[in-house]
Amino acid sequence: MKCPNRAAERRPEVIQVLRQAGYERVVDMTGHEQHDKAYFEGTGVLVLDRVNGVAYVALSERADRGLAEQWVSSLGYKELVTFSSADCRGKPVYHTNVMMAIGTDVAVVCADSVPDAKERQHLLSKLSSSHEVVQISSAQMDALCGNVLELQGGKGLPVMAMSSQAYHAFTPEQRSVMRRHVAELVHAPIDTLERVGGGGV
Fold first, then answer.
1. 30 three-class SS
2. Phi-psi region of 158 (alpha: psi -120 to 50; beta: other; left: phi over 0)
3. Most exposed residue of 74, 126, 137, 140, measured as fewest CB within 10 angstroms of its CB?
4. What is the DSSP-derived secondary structure letter of residue 63?
5. How far apart are CA 20 and CA 7, in angstroms?
6. Cα-flanking dihedrals φ and ψ of residue 153, to 5°?
């Protein structure tokens, strides 16, 4: 973790709880923070297509290419798709899950945030080979439309979770596409978290 306050969230007791729950293997990459000044901030920088074994990573100061390759190799993923991404103000997107999300059959992505044409085309080609793709604008990315998450609802059916801000920023057509692949779009107002923390669901 690049920021010291986030690095402090790594606690041995949490790892111990996971071990007791049956998770034996720990892939510890923290040594790279001190030795190489290289970072790879876990779930934020990784957007995973678990079904097809593809990891998507927007490279940034919080997502080192070498560590991404190491992660993919260690976890047995088949492919790594990397690219650079920037918001509408030209600032790098530091977490991949701000600009894209992948569900079982549908993906949401802000392709406009990828300035390199070859990277953008490769990203869209890879996503569309296995998912229906909902493309969002940079303004919608700012409204955290890329920060959505497919979950299993209480009835055992897939739902797409998002903030109320994101829900209202999607067009009716985009919501209709997502509804073809999930039972329901669920949203909650988390304005304070979005404003202060810079993230959504």
1. coil
2. beta
3. 74
4. B
5. 23
6. -80, 180
Beta strands in 29-181 (DSSP E): 47-49, 54-58, 79-83, 100-102, 106-109, 132-135, 149-152, 158-163
Cα separation of 137 and 134, whole Å? Answer: 10
| Residue from 59, 43, 168 nearest 119 by CA | 59
Structure tokens that stand for 133 in this block: 């793709």
Which structure tokens are listed for 73?
């190799």
Helices and strands of the chain, counted as H and E runs: 10, 9
The first and second tokens of residue 146, run together, are 């890329």
Would the pTM of this model clear 0.70, i.e. be above it? yes
CA 127 – CA 56 distance, rounded (Å): 10
Bridge partner list, 80: 55
Q: Per residue in 66-114, pLDDT tens?
A: 999 999 999 999 999 999 999 989 999 989 999 999 999 999 999 999 9
Check: CB of residue 83 under 8 Å from CB of residue 58.
Answer: yes
**For 26-64, where are the alpha helices, taking DSSP H only?**
31-35, 42-45
